Amino acid sequence: MGKKFNDTFLKACRKEEVPHVPVWYMRQAGRYQPEYRAIREKYSFFEINENPEVCAEVTRLPVEQLGVDAAILFADIMTPLKPIGVHVDIVEGIGPVIDNPISSLQDIGKLKDLKPEEDVPYILDTIKLLRNQLDVPLIGFSGAPFTLASYLIEGGPSKGYHKTKGFMYSKPKEWQALMDKLAEVTVSYLQAQIHSGAQAVQVFDSWVGALSAEDYKEYIAPTMTRIFKTLKENTNVPSIYFGSGSSHLLEEWNKLPADVLSIDWRISLDKVRALGIDKPLQGNLDPSLLLAPFELLKERAKKVIDQGISRPGYIFNLGHGIFPSASVDTLKKLTDFVHDYTSKN
């Protein structure tokens, strides 16, 4: 694009001095954008994913429209599961639906290894394209093992995750085998994204808030430690960890070798810091405020920012993803506000 490369986001991930607070938004490419809706009329979700030019356009669009400081690869957490033998479909209004749920060690044994260069070359090609097109960092991402396992066991989205937790409690050997398999897939997928040019990675553990801190520590933390430790040893890019409804897990998260914690909107950043957490933080405006009068939105954003910048290493984001009825105009104004309010020029 010819503009000077804006590395503010990467600096914040490393707790370095920044000219302004960097901003990006989870689900910043999506249905709230008229242009994205027009693209979706021509292509299914996975067709966009599998067409590098279109996927790069969708990823780039919010950067151009909103002026954010980072792009996030447009893909789905299910993308690496299709090639390992999971029959998954993204159903409108429901989400990922799997027609061959896992219930035994035999089912887990049928899952193949992920070979990203052979299995998801289109994802890696999209990243290579974007590195030439973007003047902001590109964030790669993956789903986390618990969240992926919840879809694999439940067969789709769930309210209580009872089947998943029942499997975890009653079949510890099978659960560990599934965690090990999904950890390998996650690491292979993220390392391939990094080698193709992703400059940071975010691991989405969207549904892990369904677990107590005790269960997280016992059944999940060893797997997440392994993932973040392997990424740290083999790459030099920042890693971010996000989960919704997971404020009660933050003290466990703080022990992980993840570089940045992305905080959901249910807890204030002051309270996060009061827990003794000194890692860089990302977040955590309630997405619903995007529908509030702009003065109120500004006031609440200011409050989040003031708490965020009390220590070095802060990235402004929402506490969950953008939803379809949000407006491009509001998000653009919010991005400009964050930049203006925190600018050191």
From TrEMBL:
Keywords: Cytoplasm, Decarboxylase, Lyase, Porphyrin biosynthesis
EC code(s) of this entry: 4.1.1.37
Enzyme class: lyase
Superkingdom of the organism of origin: Bacteria
Segments forming domain Uroporphyrinogen decarboxylase (URO-D): 22-31, 139-155
Signal peptide extent: none
Claim: Lyase is one of the keywords in the record: yes
Binding site for substrate: R27, Q28, A29, G30, R31, F46, D76, Y151, S206, H320
Main location: cytoplasm
One GO molecular-function entry: uroporphyrinogen decarboxylase activity
Protein localization: Cytoplasm
Pathway: Porphyrin-containing compound metabolism; protoporphyrin-IX biosynthesis; coproporphyrinogen-III from 5-aminolevulinate: step 4/4
Function of the protein: Catalyzes the decarboxylation of four acetate groups of uroporphyrinogen-III to yield coproporphyrinogen-III.
Oligomeric and partner information: Homodimer.
Protein name: Uroporphyrinogen decarboxylase
Organism: Scopulibacillus daqui
Organism ancestry: Bacteria, Bacillati, Bacillota, Bacilli, Bacillales
